Amino acid sequence: MYKYLWIFCFICIVDIIYAQGNLQFNQIIVIECSAGIPTTFTVTQGKVWKIENANSSSNGAMYLYNGTNQNVMYMNQCFPFWLPTNYSGSFYTGSSKGFVSIIEFNIVQ
Fold it and tell me: In the chain, what are the domain boundaries?
C-alpha cells in the first residue's frame, strides 16, 4: 500500500517540476501579405502562436519560411499549427494579397 502511495507522490512531484506551464489567451493577430514581398515576424519571448488559417485572395499558395529563407511549409493545407517562442521567419504569397490568422498565447508558469 505504501509503495503505491510513494509512486503516486513521485509522479505528482515530477509532473509539477517538469510542467511546461499553461497557456493564457493574449490576442488575435491578422498579418497581411503583399504579392511577392515576404512579411517577416518574430514570436515574442514568453508567447506562442497558433496559426489558425492562411489564404490568399486568388487562392494562391501561402508559404512559411524560416529565418534562413528556406521553405518550411506550404501553408494551405494543415491547420492549426504552432510556432514556438522566439521563432523568426516570414510569410510569403507569390500571386496576390494574402492573410494569416493567428491566436497569440502567453506562457504562464
Answer: 21-108
DSSP the chain: -HHHHHHHHHHHHHHHHT---EEEEEEEEEEEEBBTB-EEEEPPTTEEEEEEEEEETTS--EEEEETT--EEEETTS---EEE-TT-EEEEEESSS-EEEEEEEEEEE-
CATH of domain 21-108: 2.60.120.340
C-alpha cell of residue 61: 499558395
| Cis status, amide bond into 80, omega within 30 of 0 | yes
Mean pLDDT of 50-62: 79
Pairing relationship of beta strands 81-83 and 47-56 according to DSSP bridges:
antiparallel
* pLDDT higher at 100 or 96: 100
pTM for the model? 0.72
For CA atoms 47, 57, 38, 71, the dihedral sign is positive
- pLDDT exceeds 60 at position 60: yes
